[in-house]
Specification:
seven-stranded antiparallel sheet, globular, 16 helices, alpha+beta, 3 domains, Cathepsin B, Chain A
Length: 395
């Protein structure tokens, strides 16, 4: 057979094979297929509380789970104040990207565009790499950790600290329970029963790289969310789904207490009048904290007046402190994004800092000027009722 004939036959065979493959599903088509079943009260709309109920159903998986996760993600983009009244009609599903909220999250900023179909395809890809067991290996793997779309940097950065330095503490906190569920026992004495995360919950709350390491991060997220919901004075948080309760942000000091049973010490930054004394305090306290295996974190709120944004860093964001170099007065921070960044110029506040898997070094004086607070784990014992007593070091 001539070469041209061979090529023609191959082309025909490929065309026939492609024609026989099922066409890729579309997000809107999948939702319409399940709309009647997902409309739990049969009022012609899918409500926010119905989405939360559906998110916990293990029977929803595959394409349906990916589509449901997109609906949940879009609901989470809605301002918390109006989220209880969130509803979607069948026509809204077809125009989800153009759906406008009655109240803007930030009136000064236009809302970020939402791409339902793109997000749906991304979720389908993640499902193929997901490891549906507590740990993919023998335990948490810090090297694959990257914060997902949920706004839980305050949780994620210190969880990364433990995964890197004290992975046994994570294994000790998460205990298996009946029917595939889990019991999470925090070190301040509080315990929370956590249902095994569904595919939809995993997709919404974690990045694809983290899910390749198992479901342990989502289990911890749900437990921390339950704790925040139980203790919050905010009515919106008290009635929120657990991971919604933590997605709105929080403080590393709370997580520090849950993960250690110890009270945190907070040191305020940025005040030029206190710079000398507080820099000396940081030079003394940070290495002492880390030398004894205790947790340390730094938070960065809004951009400080008169300063330019540091390229590569996130504001309204939390970082774990991994190390301190006393000779060079450098602090090693971990950005829970797990990102890589190369400055376009010499390292510093102007061009940013070289970053690998979120780890970078920053001069202590620069940290003081640009960051807002440092939290350090102490040896003071914290209890679930909020009291403090003196204790031995936590090893």
């Amino acid at each position: 057979m001539r070469t041209a004939q061979v090529l023609f036959c191959l082309a025909v065979s490929l065309a026939v094979a492609r024609a026989s493959e099922p066409s890729a599903s579309r997000f809107a088509d999948v939702v319409h297929e399940h709309f009647a079943a997902w409309d739990l009260n049969h009022d012609g709309k899918i409500e926010g509380r119905e989405i939360d109920t559906l998110m916990t159903r293990r029977s929803i998986h595959g394409e349906a789970a990916a589509a449901l996760a997109v609906l949940k993600l879009r609901e989470r983009h809605t301002p918390a104040a109006v989220r209880p009244g969130y509803t979607l009609s069948a026509s809204d599903v077809d125009n989800l990207d153009a759906l406008a909220d009655p109240v803007a999250i930030d009136p000064a900023k236009p809302p970020k565009p939402f791409h339902a179909e793109t997000q749906y395809k991304r979720y389908l890809k993640i499902l193929k790499t997901m490891v549906p067991q507590l740990y993919a290996g023998s335990g948490p793997d810090f090297t694959v950790m990257k914060q997902g779309g949920i706004g839980d940097c305050y949780f994620f950065c210190l969880t990364g600290f433990l995964a890197s330095k004290h992975p046994n503490r994570i294994r000790e906190m998460i205990q298996t329970g009946p029917n595939g569920n889990y019991l999470v026992k925090f070190f301040d004495g509080e315990s929370f029963s956590v249902g095994a995360p569904t595919e939809a919950e995993l997709l919404v709350n974690n990045s694809s790289s983290s899910l390749a390491d198992g479901i342990w991060l989502c289990v911890l997220e749900k437990a921390v969310g339950q704790r925040l919901r139980a203790r919050s004075k905010d009515p919106a948080k008290k009635t929120a789904e657990p991971t919604d309760a933590m997605a709105a942000g929080g403080s590393t000091s709370t997580v520090m207490t849950l993960y250690s049973g110890h009270k945190p010490k907070s040191i305020s930054l940025r005040d030029p009048r206190q710079a000398g004394a507080r820099l000396q305090e940081l030079r003394r306290e940070i290495p002492a904290t880390l030398a004894h295996g205790r947790m340390a974190s730094a938070e960065m709120d809004a951009l400080a007046n008169g300063l330019q944004k540091i390229p590569g860093l996130g504001y309204h964001h939390a970082y774990a402190i991994f190390a301190f170099d006393a000779d060079r007065d450098l602090v090693t921070l971990w950005n829970p994004w797990g990102n890589h960044f190369q400055p376009k110029g010499s390292e510093g506040a102007e061009h940013g800092f070289a970053t690998e898997h979120g780890l970078f070094q920053i001069p202590l004086k620069t940290l003081y000027q640009h960051f807002s607070t440092v939290h350090l784990e102490t040896t003071g014992r914290a209890t679930a009722d909020g009291t403090t007593r003196k204790s031995a070091r936590h090893h």
